[in-house]
Write a structure and sequence with these properties.
Its cofactor is pyridoxal 5'-phosphate. Belongs to the GcvP family. The glycine cleavage system is composed of four proteins: P, T, L and H. It comes from Corynebacterium guangdongense. By secondary structure, this protein is an alpha/beta fold. Among the domains are: 244 residues, 3-Layer(aba) Sandwich (Aspartate Aminotransferase, domain 2); 106 residues, Alpha-Beta Complex (Aspartate Aminotransferase, domain 1). The protein is 36% helix and 11% strand. It has 29 helices and 24 strands. The strands form 6 sheets. The protein has a 7-stranded mixed sheet, sandwiched between helices. The protein has a 7-stranded mixed sheet with strand order 15-21-20-19-18-16-17, sandwiched between helices. A 3-stranded antiparallel sheet has the order 11-14-13, with helices on one face. Helix 22 links the parallel strand 18 and strand 19. Helix 3 crosses helix 23, helix 5 runs antiparallel to helix 12 and helix 7 crosses helix 15.
């Protein structure tokens, strides 16, 4: 790309806005630490052995305006046709009030995963509406709060069936599933040693030893068949039935749950989420009651708060499922929360009646199109369908696809003899006529009979909850979105100092481009001739990321960090198999590792062996030697997070890599903490063979309340052949040869629709800007650690007593003295207006703090002031001034309703509860009150409720 402003001007412009401290603040922070420059600080903190050999080769940085101008150029290279392609991705209209109020609103897109429920009630309520929507449409009682995409959701369904039906080793996939679903689900099944059969499920099931079937309803060609015979047949053989379906079709089709299905999966994209060139989109899963404790992903449940009123939270068994490590049933850590919120808002805004009108309009236009073709002598393959018409055109499919493109329409070449035309929300009368004309039919019939057979027409009511039947106007919707948003504490209000999460600024210059039509309205399976701009952007981004990490090649296909981990481990596993090392099936994982590491290893069919942690928080080299001695010839890999999850740059990392390589293993370096390396150190140069990156951390894609995420996988040269492959070109009927990679997501580029954000960030920073961001992140963490070390000991430090980009505050001794736990401190911080740091990870009883480079000195000092004040509150308990149970800490946080109630039973004052430091009194308008008091977590698990409660549950007139 060509810079349009000088490097100095553009760097000063963007970096000055991205970095929190100005030069005066930076010098003050360095002075507190005793260093005269950022370079001197980094020389003391970062081991010289890992410093990069040369800076990344990146373009000179440009201004925000120049970056957007370049994106306009790239967008203009895309050809945006009206999408009638289908194959799991449909034309839809995002209501502007939702696009502006949710997708483009920082209060929604900068929020973190709702692990602190008291400050997450708004997004939890929206996600509960999503679950309720899926439950009612699917006819099953429990749904999760979204999965990553339809193909991986299908793979999760297969895994769930195999766990529930332990004696079975075979799974049957419906040949009518979308090709990308077959590609991903079949390879994920084979990875866990299931036998896969892909067949036409209109035939009788044969054989035993079945875990279950995955049925298409409707099929990829649009065909609708009654799934009941297959469901009954698999149940008679002791297996389970999963159904892949389209949520809009379920407004007209009977729900799979009513038909006996055990699991329902699908994609909610057509509920108002743009095509986004393939993602991010919120997939879903609903299950029967007997499977509710095994459902993968997140599950929002209803509990009560300290006042006995309903409050939402993530159900315990799914809140941190990956923390079960090698015993986890899934490695899902993030989901697609922001997109699930968008879909649920779409359902709320249109309501039951509006969605029924949309579904009927889509179906009516599809049936009239099909009837018109038949009247004109053109053969239509299926009599029963919802929105997709498969048109038979022997030997002419591509010719007709090209003719449609000339007329402004993107349709699907199902095969050389068949064209698929899928109708979406915006399809008009003119579109029906124009498309009929492409097939040589000049007259469109005025009416056509329904193409949905009576046996599967919906009879059960759906979307009956008042939330789907009470908000009708844009005014109401605008206020509903604002009401929920106001309940939450996101990055637009305060720093979010979550260790290992890197909650930094998400630059608006990149954010606002994701909804530009020239990017957002491109179908993921459009031909290359129509996607030149997208592919050029992605190639540039992948090349830049390879430069920053020191690897040979990068794939952006994995649509979450967990999927990036899985893709990297599958590459390692397949590399060994291709070399004939079939016995290498052990993955060494340090005890301090993130829980997804072990869960991903299991999904890649690797056995986990834990390596101990030394007293200084580093990998115990003696234990590593012992494990390598014991398992050497079976070691496939080690997974290392660097800097370590303990917040320090381990100076032994090269030695660890060398030892594993000497034993014949590969080194996987988890890129979760790349914000401490970018611009200064390349994992591909100090020993890594593969890494995944979290673009929703270091590279500024927003967390979105738990997703979107993007987790690209970066590999050394010898692993390039094993990178993820395009799911649409795979042959699911045959096991992929081990000398190549397998797909992990529904589309070649995963959640491409948000890649403009990291592209913009790197374009606007360049190599020097990347370095500056890392330096300031390390400066902020060390300044905070130094200022708080007297109040809360810093558990681990590296060379020269310094930390990396985060630090762990140890509360365990204080807990022993006072009974005050790290959880109490997390809840009390809410009253000071802060999101808590990471709680009890990686060490129980601690808080892991990461301020990031984007927080200015005033905000960091405000957090320090809050923590020092809390330390004084703890000391009051230790000194006997107050009993723990009666303390301000044990009863935090405090709602506005509690503070203003006539009855105040506490010994401490209302002012101490709500305005604990004087500085808060100077800005009362910024005071945040949580909408609920402290939640009763145990109650929510004993009484698992995962759908919207009725409105009367929130009646506050009765305080009993």
């Amino acid at each position: 790309m060509s810079p349009q402003t000088s490097a100095a001007d553009s760097t000063a412009g963007f970096i000055a806005r991205h970095l929190g401290p100005d030069s005066t603040e930076r010098d003050h922070m360095l002075d507190v630490l005793g260093y005269d420059s950022l370079d001197a600080l980094m020389d003391a903190a970062m081991p010289s052995a890992i410093r990069q050999e040369a800076a990344p080769v990146l373009p000179e940085p440009v201004s925000e305006e120049a970056a957007q101008a370049r994106l306009r150029e790239l967008g203009a290279k895309n050809v945006v046709l009206k999408a009638f392609y289908g194959q799991g991705f449909s034309d839809t209209l995002t209501p502007p009030v939702i696009r502006r109020g949710v997708v483009e609103d920082a209060g929604w897109y900068t929020a973190y995963t709702p692990y602190q429920p008291e400050i997450s009630q708004g997004r939890l309520e929206a996600l509960l509406s999503f679950q309720t929507m899926v439950q009612e449409l699917s006819g099953l009682p429990v749904a999760n709060a979204s999965l990553l995409d339809e193909a991986s959701a299908a793979a999760e369904a297969v895994g769930l069936m195999s766990r529930a039906v332990k004696k079975g080793r075979r799974v049957i996939l419906d040949s009518r599933l979308h090709p990308q679903v077959l590609a991903v689900a079949s390879e994920r099944a084979r990875a866990i040693e299931l036998e896969v059969e892909i067949t036409d499920l209109s035939a009788d099931l044969v054989g035993e030893d079945l875990v279950g079937v995955l049925i298409a309803y409707p099929g990829t060609e649009g065909q609708v068949t009654d799934p009941r015979p297959v469901i009954d047949a698999i149940h008679s053989r002791g297996g389970l039935a999963a159904v892949a379906t389209d949520p809009l079709s379920l407004m007209l089709l009977e729900s799979p749950g009513e038909m006996g299905a055990d699991i329902v999966i699908g994609n909610s994209q057509r509920f108002g989420v743009p095509l986004f060139f393939g993602g991010p989109h919120a997939a879903y899963m609903a299950v029967s009651d007997k499977l509710k404790r095994q459902i993968p992903g997140r599950l929002v449940g209803v509990s009560v708060d300290a006042h006995g009123r309903p409050a939402y939270r993530l159900a315990l068994q799914t809140r941190e499922q990956h923390i079960r490590r090698e015993k986890a049933t899934s490695n899902i850590c993030t989901a697609q929360a922001l997109l699930a919120v968008t879909a649920s808002m779409y359902a709320v805004y249109h309501g039951r009646d509006g969605l029924l009108r949309i579904a009927n309009r889509v179906h009516e236009r599809a049936t009239r199109f099909a009837a018109s073709l038949r009247d004109g002598g053109v053969s239509v393959r299926h009599d029963a369908f919802f929105d997709t018409v498969a048109v038979e055109a022997p030997g002419r499919a591509q010719e007709l696809v090209d003719a449609a493109a000339d007329a402004g329409y993107l349709v699907r070449p199902i095969d050389a003899d068949t064209v698929g035309v899928s109708f979406g929300e915006s399809a008009s009368e003119e579109d029906v006529a124009a498309l009929a004309g492409v097939f040589g039919v000049g007259t469109v019939v005025a009416e056509a009979e329904t193409a949905i057979p009576g046996s599967v027409q919906r009879e059960t009511e759906t979307l009956t909850h008042p939330i789907f039947n009470s908000i009708h106007s844009e005014t109401q919707m605008m206020r509903y979105i604002r009401t929920l948003g106001d309940k939450d504490l996101a990055l637009d209000r305060t720093m979010i100092p979550l260790g290992s999460c890197t909650m930094k600024l998400n630059p608006t210059a990149g954010m606002e481009t994701i909804t530009w039509p020239e990017f957002a309205n491109v179908h993921p399976y459009a031909p290359d001739s129509q996607t030149e701009g997208w592919r050029e952007l992605i190639t540039e981004l992948e090349d830049w990321l390879a430069q920053i990490t020191g690897y040979a090649k990068v794939s952006v296909q994995p649509n979450a960090g967990s999927q990036g981990e899985l893709a990297g481990l599958l590459a390692i596993r397949r590399y060994h198999l291709a070399n004939g090392d079939t016995e290498r099936d052990i993955c060494l994982i340090p005890a301090s590792a993130h829980g997804t590491n072990a869960a991903s290893a299991v999904l890649a069919h690797l056995r986990v062996v834990v390596v101990a942690t030394a007293t200084d928080g580093s990998i115990d080299l003696a234990d590593l030697d012992a494990k390598l001695s014991e398992h050497g010839e079976r070691v496939a890999a080690i997974m290392v997070t660097y800097p370590s999850t303990h917040g320090v740059y381990e100076d032994t990392i090269r030695e660890v890599c060398d030892k594993v390589h000497a034993a014949g293993g590969q080194v996987y370096i988890d890129g979760a903490n790349m914000n401490a390396l970018a611009g200064l150190s390349k994992p591909g140069q100090f020993g890594g063979d593969v890494s995944h990156l979290n673009l929703h951390k270091t590279f500024t894609i927003p967390h979105g309340g738990g997703g979107p995420g993007v987790g690209p996988v970066a590999v050394a040269e010898h692993l390039v052949p094993f990178l993820p492959t395009d799911p649409t070109t795979a042959d699911p009927y045959e096991e992929t040869p081990v000398d190549r990679g397998v797909p992990v997501a529904s589309t070649a580029y995963g959640s491409a629709g948000v890649l403009q954000i990291p592209w913009s960030y790197i374009a606007m920073t360049g190599a020097e800007g990347q370095k500056a961001a890392t330096q300031h992140a390390v400066l902020a963490a060390n300044y905070l650690a130094a200022r708080l070390s007297d109040a809360f000991p810093v558990l681990y430090t590296g060379e020269n007593g310094l930390v990396g980009h985060e630090c762990i505050l140890d509360l365990r001794e204080l807990t022993d003295q006072s009974k005050v736990t790290a959880t109490d401190v997390a809840k009390r911080l809410i009253d000071y207006g802060f999101h808590a740091p990471t709680l009890s990870f990686p060490v129980a009883g601690t808080l892991m703090v990461e301020p990031t480079e984007s927080e200015d000195l005033n905000e960091i000092d405000r957090f320090i002031e809050a923590m020092v004040a809390i330390r004084a509150e703890i000391q009051e308990i230790i000194d006997g001034g107050v009993e723990y149970e009666a303390s301000v800490l044990a009863n935090a946080p405090y709602t506005a309703q509690a503070v203003t109630a006539d009855d105040w039973t506490f010994e401490f004052s209302r002012a101490q509860a709500a305005w604990p430091v004087d500085s808060m009194r100077t800005g009362l308008t910024n005071k945040y009150f949580p909408p609920v008091g402290r939640l009763d977590e145990a109650y929510g698990d004993r009484n698992l409720v995962c759908s919207c409660p009725p409105p009367e549950a929130f009646d506050i007139s009765d305080d009993s």
